[in-house]
Each structure stands twice: as C-alpha cells, then as structure tokens.
C-alpha cells in the first residue's frame, strides 16, 4: 500500500514562484527514503504539502487513502496526528522538562495522563534518554536535544515520520546516531522521509534517494 503519493504536484507561492513542478512519486508503506537537492530546490515545500502546512497548487497529494486536496477541514488535525515531524531546530520549549516537551502531542490528542506517561517513557527509552525526563532540555547537549525532538515526533506512533534537515546542527557521529534511530522506527513499520543535503551521510545509508532540482524530481522516482 502507498503511504504517500504525489500525482503531478505543483506548488506556486503567491509571489508567483514555482517551488514544485510536476512532482510524481510514491512512497510505499514501510519505506524509508531521503529527499535531497540544492538549497531552494523545494525539499521543505514538499514536506509541508504532506503535513498540510501548505496546499498544492495543482495535482494531488495522497497520504494513505486520503487525497489531501479533498480532506474536510475538520479532519486536518486528525491528519496531522498521523504524521510525526522532526525539524533541524527541534523547537523544544525551554520553560519545561524533557517529559513535558515529549508529552505535548499526547495532551493535544487527549490521552489519559497515565497512558500518556507510559508512552512518553517508552519514547524516551527508545532514544536513550529515560534518565533525563526531569531535566530542562536547555541543559542537554545538541545531540540529546535532537533526540528529545525525535521522541516527541514518535510518541504518538505516527504512520509517517518526516524530518527536515534533522542532522543540520550535529557532527557526523551524532548524525549517524540519529539516522540509526530513524532506521529503528522504520523497522517497526513507520514510513520515513528525510530531507537532507548531507550527501555523504545519505550515501552511507544506502536508501532510496529522491533528488529535487529547481522544483522538479530529477532522480529516485
Ligand atoms: P529547500 O527546502 O529545498 O531549500 P524550499 O522548499 O524551502 O526549498 O523553497 C523552494 C523555493 O520556494 C525557494 O525558491 C524558496 O525561496 C521558495 N519559497 C519557500 N517558501 C516560500 C514562501 N512561503 N513564499 C514564497 N516563496 C517561498
Ligand atoms: P490539475 O488537473 O490542474 O492538476 P486538479 O484537478 O488535480 O488540478 O486539482 C484542482 C485544484 O484542487 C488545484 O488547483 C488545487 O488548488 C486543488 N488541489 C488539488 N490537490 C490538492 C492538494 N493535495 N491539496 C490542496 N489543494 C489541492
């Protein structure tokens, strides 16, 4: 089954700039792939269409069985909950503990507190930070902060995990660790799409790689 499908997708921003042109690809359920290309090639835009942070100007974006162009407004938050997102600057809140950061998606989704706590600890365990739950994330290293961001992205067991330059601030060794984590989640069935311009890292991972150039997919389809 397809997890993500782009059918002749175009994205034109209001200023008239075409960020994506005729993009066609399918990511199968359970696949892990990279998305690369020069700065401005359209990587972030492509991820934003999947998260419905932006809408396609033409064509169709499907996640699972859902055509996002036809998704009723009341289902947008349901849709976003199917997806976990990891960003480069991980957007942790420094006014609360690691635990409180990771539990946020579950609070929004209305989980019972005991159930939420159990899931948060399972997520922190997976990223090797169980002993840091009471710490303020500002006291952690950048690699640890990024792993808190990953725990928060997977705590609600999303079908799809998207990452936008998740290793942008990390040295090669930490980057490798983050990639191994993504592989672990992929092995248990999560579909993973990672935007990155770190070509040597991508090369080492030996996964399917979609390449964007000036808004067009030129390789990996
Ligand atoms: P990448 O992630 O590969 O660097 P982006 O998807 O961020 O590329 O950007 C693709 C193109 O779209 C770039 O030319 C960028 O300037 C433009 N762009 C991105 N976001 C917007 C926006 N909100 N409004 C107008 N143009 C944008
Ligand atoms: P075209 O035949 O020109 O590719 P479509 O019939 O696929 O256009 O789509 C018609 C309109 O529906 C598009 O112009 C776009 O505004 C909207 N649309 C289609 N898919 C999506 C989507 N995934 N998200 C948001 N809007 C969409």
TrEMBL record:
GO BP annotations listed: cell division
Residue ranges constituting the ABC transporter domain according to the UniProt record: 4-221
Transmembrane portions of the chain: none
Pfam families: ABC_tran (PF00005)
One GO CC annotation: plasma membrane
Domain of life: Bacteria
Described purpose of this protein according to its UniProt entry: Part of the ABC transporter FtsEX involved in cellular division. Important for assembly or stability of the septal ring.
UniProt record similarity statement: Belongs to the ABC transporter superfamily.
Identification of the protein by name: Cell division ATP-binding protein FtsE
Organism expressing this protein natively: Nitrincola tibetensis
């Amino acid at each position: 089954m397809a997890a993500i499908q782009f059918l002749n997708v175009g994205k034109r921003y209001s200023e008239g700039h075409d960020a994506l042109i005729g993009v066609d690809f399918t990511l199968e359920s359970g696949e892990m792939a990279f998305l690369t290309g020069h700065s401005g090639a359209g990587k972030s835009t492509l991820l934003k269409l999947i998260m419905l942070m932006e809408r396609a100007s033409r064509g169709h974006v499907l996640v699972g069985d859902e055509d996002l162009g036809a998704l009723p407004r009341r289902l947008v938050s349901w849709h976003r909950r199917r997806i976990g997102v990891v960003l480069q600057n991980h957007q942790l809140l420094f006014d609360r503990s690691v635990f409180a950061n990771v539990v946020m998606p579950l609070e929004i989704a209305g989980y019972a507190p005991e159930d939420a706590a159990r899931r948060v600890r399972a997520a922190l365990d997976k990223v090797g930070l169980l002993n840091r739950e009471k710490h303020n994330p500002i006291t952690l290293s950048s690699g640890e902060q990024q792993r808190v961001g990953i725990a928060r992205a997977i705590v609600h067991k999303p079908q799809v995990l998207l990452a936008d330059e998740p290793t942008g601030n990390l040295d090669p060794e930490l980057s490798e660790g983050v990639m191994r984590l993504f592989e672990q989640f992929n092995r248990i069935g999560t579909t993973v799409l990672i935007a990155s311009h770190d070509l040597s890292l991508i090369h080492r991972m030996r996964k399917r790689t979609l390449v964007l150039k000036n808004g067009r997919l030129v390789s990996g389809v």
